[in-house]
Amino acid sequence: RRGLEGAMMFGTGTDAGPRRPEPGQTIAAACPGLPWTGRGHPNFSGFPGGARVGYTCYVWGSRPIPDPSAKRLYGWNRKPGERIVAAFPRAGSGTVGALRENAPLAAFMSASEGYHAAGEAGFGSMGADFWDVLSRDSKEINPYSRAFNVIGRYVESHYGQVYLGNSCAAVLAPGPDGAVPTVRFMAIRLGAQIAEARVFVERALLDPARKAGMSAELAERARKLLDERTRAIIRGVSSNWVEFDGFDWQDRDDRLYELCAGIARSNP
């Protein structure tokens, strides 16, 4: 009735299950074809009882970004209905590394673009406003998680180190009248905008009709810049982002937006 049948999912299945078929069968009887979400260590594709996973956010095995000379990947380019595969950016996750509260801003800014270049849909399992609200001597704190944010009140929330605090529990900060942006949030926002610009260029290069409207010089310049950007992210990851902050990232962004303008003019 609300038009959600193409978007909604049931979840979430974590490392713990469901391990028996009955939950999947029950949900399938109530909502035939409804996919599940899975968040944990493995890259889930399904659960017992025929429960199909439509979205997974996983830790182990998230792919490194290949050098463009070997392979070019496009994580945004999925077929309709294809499973959405995202990375849980905590310790042990590859691609751009862990996005903890103290991660370099370049990592937050480059995450969306980097995951697409690695063939992933993006990243997930990150909190907006799970702020520290518990005192260190609070009896509410789960002794296993030792989390002082609100998640720490719930014993099972830390199961297998897959709770949100293992990446970043809050990208917003408490303000006098509600949540306010942090530099982490602004870096993620900027990175999403940059990733959208890159997708615009990649769509044009992958679409024969749109590419035909571009000059050979423009298409070559676009491919070279995208490869340059990919290699800059690879160097950033391998150097803990030291070889990114001071290496002309603003110039690369300016040239990317100029490319978008040129492609838009060539495909009115």
Using brief descriptors, characterize the structure shown:
single chain, 268 residues, alpha/beta, 5-stranded mixed β-sheet, two-stranded antiparallel ribbon, 7 strands
Mean pLDDT: 87
Structural class: alpha/beta
Order of helices and strands: EHEEEEHEEHHHHH
What is the rounded distance between the termini? 38 Å
Number of discrete helical segments: 7
Task: Explain what the structure shows.
With 268 residues, the protein is of the alpha/beta class. The chain contains seven helices and seven strands, in the order βαββββαββααααα. Helix 3 runs antiparallel to helix 5 and helix 5 runs antiparallel to helix 7 (249-266). The longest helix is centred in the last third of the chain and has 24 residues, at 183-206.
Fold topology:
Blueprint: E1 10-13, H1 21-30, E2 36-40, E3 46-47, E4 51-58, E5 84-87, H2 105-117, E6 172-175, E7 178-181, H3 183-206, H4 208-212, H5 216-238, H6 242-245, H7 249-266
Parallel strand pairs: 1-2, 2-4, 4-5
Antiparallel strand pairs: 3-4, 6-7
Helix pairs in contact: 2-3, 2-5, 3-5, 3-7, 5-7
Give a short overview.
The protein contains seven helices and seven strands; from the N terminus they run βαββββαββααααα. It has helices at residues 21-30, 105-117, 183-206, 208-212, 216-238, 242-245, 249-266; strands at residues 10-13, 36-40, 46-47, 51-58, 84-87, 172-175, 178-181. α2 packs across α5, α3 packs across α7 (249-266) and α5 (216-238) runs antiparallel to α7.
